[in-house]
Specification:
Elements (H helix, E strand, L loop, with lengths): L6 E5 L4 E5 L46 H10 L23 H4 L17 H9 L25 E3 L2 E3 L36 H20 L26 E5 L2 H27 L6 H22 L6 E5 L1 H8 L11 E7 L7 H12 L8 E7 L4 H24 L6 H6 L13 H25 L27 E6 L14 E6 L10 H16 L4 E6 L3 E2 L4 H9 L8 E5 L3 E3 L12 H12 L11 E4 H4 L20 H33 L7 H7 L4 H17 L3 H7 L12 H11 L23 H11 L3 E4 L7 E4 L4 H19 L16 H12 L4 H17 L9 H25 L3 H15 L2 H15 L30 H24 L4 H17 L1 H8 L7 H21 L20
Helix pairs in contact: 5-6, 5-25, 6-24, 8-9, 9-11, 12-20, 22-23, 22-27, 24-28, 24-29, 28-29
Cofactor: Zn(2+); Mn(2+)
Family: Belongs to the glycosyltransferase 2 family. Plant cellulose synthase subfamily.
Pfam family, one: Cellulose_synt
Length: 1071
């Protein structure tokens, strides 16, 4: 179709189309050009009128219908033309029907559907655009010269005009050849419909649709739609025209009580602290002061954590609409390309088989193969990883067609073959069992080859590794080696066994030299950004850890429902998926799943400005990683008034002048970008630009812009040119050899010197948790993020099972937060005046200060033991009013947790495990992170804690019982021992002093039991199995007995405590 077809409206699935020409073009076709003289309903001749003329039932479009069908339609049908939906007028000689008396000569379109006065646009639009009929099937057959232009008018989307969508990408452009039908532009769109050649099918479809609409209307068809933002009052028109996703707000019956109890808890906490501050414990003033300081800190932390969860939402995607909009039958897919990053370092700690499964799941993803490129970053330059990836690329030629043929999930072979489910469910292909067995055998042979490579790599030759041709492996020296790139699969080769193309697979190992700061994972990810930009330059990026495989092959499509949505997608910087894990014990002893964070906190952030970036399972917009600001929302034009004073007009003019200058500069930048994009990579070389700058001011300004871009992005003309292509795509005229050469250049170790990489561009440096910092910078630029939770988990990974590994993982996260808190990027003082919302800022503040809670938490967990050993308490004797505030606060705390679980769907087990590990991690990993961060930032001392492993067995979850001693275990172990001693001492003291001592003891015991119950999972991890006690526990038991004996002697519980001697009269007369 060409550019003058006008507005096209219809549905690909329903085979519907309406074309309205623009003003100035020809009107309806003359009747003489219609070739059909046969009734399009019954197949008989059209016949003649009573006057002997050709019978024409419809004077609007002259659709061929015989007199019999015309009369039947007026008497029994809906009295409208099957093609243009114009009401049939009574012709001479035809009997009258109801409606002719008052509607003679008038099109009765308003009453075609029985709408009342209070009808809304949602049902009307559905009625107008519905029909399973086609028009013009014979009308234009004999006219091959009809032009089929593309529409040049803005296209409709969700009832809004979107004038920057390419017409060929719009959902309303049909994927099949349809002859346009001229229509009268003055007539309403509802007067035109779709023709049919099957009267019975049309009538049945119409009746069913009317019944469906009536049922929808009677049951409240708009229930569940979000009435906020751009998603309100969505018309139920054809599916491709509707949005690709929608918000699902939490039910008001669940969220409103939750918000009310938060406010009540806030008020109760205010009265509680008023009492605590105004009523000190005079006999235990130090204990009272410490407890009040800790409680105030906990209250502030609770506020920072609670209020970002004020507006939780859920989201729903429509993958079918995405396909209708961007994947039209008979045309190349218009879905956006995506570059997928997989990062790995040490193959001995990150097994190659795990990385291979991740890569295989990427190559088999349900997405057009020409749109997918997989980049594997080997930051350890290990030949084992290289050889394993080579084996993986060969096995993928068999695995990928098997996955797509039988549509299996998940598409990582290790986990697919481990599934304990009925793998024959929904499988109907007769050869499935045979091919599955053959594929399982192929995979087992593949595993043997990978295991052989791993076994061979255990002993490194003295002269280093050599490749098959005898060349020394360039990465023999891990700290000093050149950059390496190997394209295993791509467009030029690597077809599967069926002869189909496979996605690109590229191995990348960036250059490393002594004396350079390579910035660990963040530096590796930035190198992948530059390499992918040179080679494929997809507009979107997805990064996953090497142990996170695609559990849902449609995960990319889920993300594209947000990224490619023409209304909301342009302001989205990334789409974050929740992390889900395999191989975790049923009870999740150490809260590895992080259910509370991913199902409560992240949904709350999604209702503000979006979730934080968690380091894996995230789809990015490439332009957002380049440090650009989010596009501004278009504001309606301001209305002017002649009644304003002249000085007001002058100020407005000045402001308008500044705006015009800014707009002109922006337009100049766009013009320069488009010019650069049109040129090929060789034409963009600096020497050619310098030649063109002589004597030309415009070219000089272009040269200045080029210099600024190279100062920002680095000295690579090809890469700089690729950054100007907002929609991605490789540069014209560049050969593969030149691109690979440039790719090697952009991963050199000195490329980032004196550039904005790691400061404003890409993954941000300065913290071991570069993920939080990177997402924070994007939100400060005004972008928003999206939290996507598909019904089938998008990605699954592995989590540490044993206690020591889990604590070290938490230590790394907490250390990164401390580094951010002590840097210039601290959310407390960074990013004001940008696009960061205040509730989002609160969440980032909470994410950076939570490790500091470990100090008051450790002190607060020590107080119960001190109170039991000294006989003092942190509060004076409670009055009735004080008891009321204490009781109210406890009730509010429990109610908040219960209502939070109610709206989020989180189970009580997951919630309680989260509470327990908050205490365990707080008094161990978070505490060490604070001191390690202070030493690293302030003194420049980088410390680390090593873990020595003790072998486990081969049973299920054997790693859960593996004991690894580390210094992180000392603080919680000490807390447990001290509180156990305090409980024994307190009970002994109460037994010795009588029943009057039991009353005050209960408060102290409750306080101490609160600590012990929260540390119970840690105690289980410390002890291990019941039938095997680690030696370290025996050592601690001896120390415990020694300390307890000394304290017992010091306390002397069997003697009564009194301030002086006890004097009583004996009754004897000593005189």
């Amino acid at each position: 179709m060409e550019a003058s077809a006008g507005l096209v409206a219809g549905s690909h699935n329903r085979n519907e189309l309406v074309v309205i020409r623009r003003d100035g073009e020809s009107g309806p076709r003359p009747l003489q050009q219609l070739s059909g003289q046969v009734c399009q309903i019954c197949g008989d001749d059209v016949g003649l009128t009573v006057d002997g003329d050709l019978f024409v039932a419809c004077n609007e479009c002259a659709f061929p219908i015989c007199r019999t069908c015309y009369e039947y339609e007026r008497r029994e049908g809906n009295q409208v033309c099957p093609q243009c939906k114009t009401r049939f007028k009574r012709l001479k000689g035809c009997p009258r029907v109801p409606g002719d008396e008052e509607e003679d000569g008038v099109d009765d379109l308003e009453h075609e559907f029985e709408w009342g006065d209070d009808h809304d646009s949602l049902y009307m639009a559905e009625a107008m655009l519905h029909g399973h009929m086609s028009y013009g099937r014979q009308g234009y057959i004999n006219n091959p010269h009809v032009a089929h232009p593309l529409p040049q008018v803005p296209l409709l989307t969700n009832g809004e005009m979107v004038d920057d969508i390419p017409p060929e990408h719009h959902a309303l452009v049909p994927s099949f050849t349809v002859q346009p039908r001229s229509m009268d532009p003055s007539k309403d769109l509802a007067s035109y419909g779709y023709g049919s050649v099957a009267w019975k099918e049309r009538m049945e479809s119409w009746k069913q649709k009317q019944e469906k609409l009536q049922m929808t209307r009677s049951h409240g068809g708009d229930k569940g739609w979000d009435n906020n933002d751009d998603e309100s009052d969505l018309p139920l028109m054809d599916e491709a025209r509707q949005p690709l996703s929608r918000k699902l707000p939490i039910s008001s019956s669940k969220i409103n009580p939750y918000r009310m109890i938060i406010l009540i808890r806030l008020v109760v906490a205010g009265f509680f602290f008023h009492y605590r501050v105004t009523n000190p414990a005079k006999d235990a003033y130090p204990l009272w002061l410490i407890s009040v300081i800790c409680e105030i800190w906990f209250a502030v932390s609770w506020i920072l954590d609670q209020f970002p969860k004020w507006l939780p939402i859920e989201r729903e995607t429509y993958l079918d609409r995405l396909s209708l909009r961007y994947e039209k039958e008979g045309q190349p897919s218009q879905l956006a390309s995506i570059d997928i990053f997989v990062s790995t370092v040490d193959p001995m700690k990150e097994p190659p088989l795990i990385t291979a499964n991740t890569v295989l799941s990427i190559l088999a993803v349900d997405y057009p193969v020409e749109k997918v490129s997989c980049y594997v970053s080997d930051d350890g330059a290990a030949m084992l990883t290289f050889e394993a990836l080579s084996e993986t690329s060969e096995f993928a030629k068999k695995w990928v067609p098997f996955c797509k043929k039988f549509n299996i999930e998940p598409r990582a072979p290790e986990w697919y073959f481990q599934q304990k489910i009925d793998y024959l469910k929904d499988k109907v292909h007769p050869s499935f069992i045979k091919e599955r067995r053959a594929m399982k055998r192929e995979y087992e042979e593949f595993k043997v080859r990978i295991n052989a490579l791993v076994a061979k790599a255990q002993k490194v030759p003295e002269e280093g590794w050599t490749m098959q041709d005898g060349t020394p492996w360039p990465g023999n020296n891990v700290r000093d080696h050149p950059g390496m790139i190997q394209v295993f699969l791509g467009q030029s080769g690597g077809l599967d066994i069926d002869g189909n193309e496979l996605p690109r697979l590229v191995y990348v190992s960036r250059e490393k030299r002594p004396g350079f700061n390579h910035h660990k994972k963040a530096g590796a990810m930035n190198a992948l950004v530059r390499v992918s930009s040179v080679l494929t330059n997809a507009p979107y990026l997805l990064n996953v850890d090497c142990d996170h495989y695609f559990n849902n092959s449609k995960a990319i499509r889920e993300a594209m429902c947000f990224m490619m949505d023409p209304l909301v997608g342009k302001r989205v910087c990334y789409v974050q998926f929740p992390q889900r894990f395999d191989g975790i014990d049923r009870h999740d002893r150490y809260a590895n799943r992080n259910i509370v964070f991913f199902d409560i906190n992240m949904k709350g952030l999604d209702g503000i400005q979006g979730p934080i970036y968690v380091g894996t399972g995230c789809v990015f917009r490439r332009q957002a990683l380049y440090g650009t600001d989010a596009p501004k929302k278009k504001k309606p034009p301001n209305r002017t008034c002649n009644c304003w004073p002249k000085w007001c007009c002058c100020s407005c003019c000045c402001t308008g002048g500044r705006k015009k200058k800014a707009a002109k500069a922006k337009q100049e930048k766009k013009r320069f970008s488009s010019k650069i994009a049109e040129n090929g990579a060789p034409a963009y070389a600096l020497d050619r630009i310098e030649e063109g700058t002589k004597g030309n001011e415009t070219e000089k300004s272009n040269m200045t812009a080029v210099q600024k871009l190279e100062k920002k992005f680095g000295q690579s003309p090809v890469f700089v040119a690729s950054t100007l292509l907002e929609n991605g795509g490789t540069l014209k005229g560049a050969t593969p050899a030149s691109l690979l050469k440039e790719a090697i250049h952009v991963i050199s170790c000195g490329y980032e010197d004196k550039t904005d990489w790691g400061k404003e561009i890409g993954w941000i440096y300065g913290s071991v948790t570069e993920d939080i910092l990177t997402g924070f910078k994007m939100h400060c630029h005004g972008w928003r993020s999206i939290y996507c939770v598909p019904s089938l988990a998008a990605f699954k990974g592995s989590a540490p099972l044993n206690l020591s590994d889990r604590l070290h993982q938490v230590l790394r996260w907490a250390l990164g937060s401390v580094e951010i808190f002590l840097s210039k990027h601290c959310p407390l003082w960074y990013g004001y005046g940008g696009g960061l919302k205040w509730l989002e800022r609160m969440s980032y503040i909470n994410a950076t200060i939570y490790p500091w809670t470990s100090i008051p938490l450790l002190a607060y967990c020590t107080l119960p033991a001190v109170c039991l050993l000294t006989g003092k308490f942190i509060t004076p004797e409670l009055s009735n009013v004080a008891s009321l505030w204490f009781l109210s606060l406890f009730i509010c705390i429990f109610a908040t947790g219960i209502l939070e679980m109610r709206w989020s769907g989180v189970g009580i087990d997951d919630w309680w495990r989260n509470e327990q590990f908050w205490v365990i991690g707080g008094v161990s990993s978070h505490l060490f992170a604070v001191f390690q961060g202070l030493l690293k930032v302030l003194a420049g001392i980088d410390t680390s804690f090593t873990v020595t492993s003790k072998g486990g067995d081969d049973e299920d979850f054997s790693e859960l019982y593996t004991f690894k001693w580390t210094t992180l275990l000392i603080p919680p172990t000490t807390l447990l021992i001290v509180n156990f001693i305090g409980v024994v001492a307190g009970v002994s003291n109460a037994i010795n002093n009588g029943y009057e001592s039991w009353g005050p003891l209960f408060g102290k015991l409750f306080f101490s039991f609160w600590v012990i119950v929260h540390l119970y999972p840690f105690l289980k991890g410390l002890v291990g199995r019941q039938n095997r006690t680690p030696t370290i526990v025996i050592v601690w038991s001896i120390l415990l007995a020694s300390i307890f004996s000394l304290l017992w002697v010091r306390i002397d519980p069997f003697l009564p405590k009194s301030d002086g001697p006890l004097l009583e009269e004996c009754g004897l007369d000593c005189n």
